[in-house]
Amino acid sequence: MKRKIVIVGGVAGGASAAARLRRLDEDAQIILFERDPYISFANCGLPYYIGDTIKDRSKLIVQTPEAMRRRFHIDVRTGSEVLSLDPVSRTVKVQNAERGIYEEAYDAVILSPGAKPLRPTLPGIDHPQIFTLRNIPDTDRIKEQVASAGRRSVVVIGGGFIGIEMAENLREAGLDVTLVEAGSQILAPFDAEMANALAKEMEQQGVKLRLGDSVTAFTDADGEVKVKLASGAELQAGLVILAIGVAPDTLFLQSSGIALGPKGHILVNEHMQTNLEDVYAVGDAVETTDFIHGSKAAVPLAGPANKQGRIAADNICGLGTTYKGTQGTSVIKVFGLTGAQTGSNEKTLQRLGAPYHAIYVHPSSHATYYPGASPLTIKLLFSPEGAILGAQAVGKSGVDKRLDVIATAIRFKGSVADLTELELTYAPPYSSAKDPVNMAGYAAENVLTGRTHVFLPRELEGRDEDHTLLVDVRTEAEHARGHIPGSINIPVDELRERLSELDASKEIWVYCQVGLRGYTASRILNQKGFQTRNLTGGYVTYQMHEYKPGQ
To answer: Are 383 and 358 in contact (CB under 8 A)?
Structure first.
């Protein structure tokens, strides 16, 4: 019997589900409803088209309705908004400009409505020069404003991925850019010190940051927008981009009986099934499972949406495929730097009360004797048993490669010991004989085995100077160029001859530039009877922690 499958929404989740369904069932009747004219487009590429990095608009279109109909024989209905779903009559109510409001029956439904940008109810929010970015029409409107000779300044509100990408691309387009973020840091999935490195790059490229400040109102200023902040400051710009987050676009489902989470996300099981019979849901509108902790999670990313669409199609066709959870792996370009992260950050681990260790390493992207090597920072979070809980990295080159390796290790339940044993590609233009991932594993393994005890920069704030001694084991010249206040300088190469200068009744806290000499110093001191701790990641990590964006 020919089945009738209705898909609500295209883009990553819906379009991938439609294609997978056809490949599995040549005879099914498949109808895809999409409210907008575009069913499948590169939404992650929209900021780069606005900034003119991507010059050909057509490159953003992944699949057209005509091509979808021709290749997959799918009934694509654009300009069609699904207003409601009735699980009793097994119908969806649809509104279309030509057909009006009508009902369409289904045997199975895949919901992929996505998420919509948040638009707070602030005074003046309806000013015509305030924009959000979700789709191609939004992009066209913003692109037109950027091209206008009179729009040379912009305020971006929100320091998440979209806000940062918009700020970068608008700056690259020659605009004067100010970014306002209510939180104390940009890019919440990163821990503060890692986000600081990216914030510093933004400031060096001319983006003005205002962190820890929120918008209270908008007013008109001769066609431009005056942005009033909680601090009392006022900003004026020809263009305002709202990028303060997204909410699941699920209002049309509230009378359907479908189970929704506290923020309106559709609840699904591992097969992407909702609580309603033959109704599945995928993408930014669903709440799934955190892969590491098993808790509920909603992660609006294209990769998971594509996978979920495929899995929903599989289960409609009886394959029994399961979605095993989301790691939240992501990467972002910030001018000349790349930031990437996977798994849990420290904020999440602390909120869950999960015990963990943290280490930093600052290796080069490839062999230092080969031209073009640049430093990168890797932060690794792991359990007392050695399970990898999360990782973050920032650098000019090689960041995505290393984080992808660690993300893969997490997916296969790897440990820090596994990172030390990974055999990764090596040639001087690409890596070192000890890859940065191996080095992160070595540093973590040393902590687990007790060969070194580390401390984090934030622990310096509560250091008991009566019972600890802070020692800089770098050279005198390095110490003179900048050091942690309260430290004495004994270079590691002189340490054995100067042990008498140390008070054995105190715990010795050592640090160097990136942590390696500090580790060597701690091994020397431990074997001479001293109790020691080494600043993981060294002075470089301390500087990342101490940097104050927007000041």
So the answer is: no
Nearest-Å Rg of the Cα atoms of the chain is 27
pLDDT at residue 40, as a whole number: 83
Exposure of 302 in the CB half-sphere (CA atoms within 13 A): 13
Question: CB-based burial of residue 219 (10 Å sphere; 0-12 exposed, 13-18 middle, 19+ buried)?
Answer: middle
Task: Tell me, yes or no, if 44 is annotated catalytic.
Answer: yes
pLDDT, tens digit (0-9, with 9 covering 90-100), for 497-549: 999 999 999 999 999 999 999 999 999 999 999 999 999 999 999 999 999 99
> Can you list the alpha helix ranges (DSSP code H) found in 121-191?
136-147, 161-172
Q: What is the pLDDT of residues 359-400, one digit of tens each?
A: 999 999 999 999 999 999 999 999 999 999 999 999 999 999
Summarised one tens digit per residue, pLDDT across range 211-255 is 999 999 999 999 999 999 999 999 999 999 999 999 999 999 999
Query: 445: which residues sit within 8 A by CB, 6+ positions away?
Result: 386, 416, 417, 420
Q: Are 342 and 406 in contact (CB under 8 A)?
A: yes
- Ranges of the chain with pLDDT below 70: 149
Token duo for residue 41:
């487009």
CA distance 106 to 75: 13
- 56, with CB counted inside 10 A (0-12, 13-18, 19+), is exposed
Question: What's the Cα-to-Cα distance from 383 to each of 82, 389, 412, 532, rounded to whole Å?
Answer: 46, 7, 16, 22
The answer to whether 347 and 389 have CB atoms below 8 angstroms apart is no
Distance CA 414, CA 410 (A): 5
Token pair belonging to 508: 């010795």
Other Cβ atoms within 10 Å of 368 Cβ, number = 14
Catalytic residue, chosen from 44, 182, 319, 524, is: 44
**Token duo for residue 533:** 């701790």
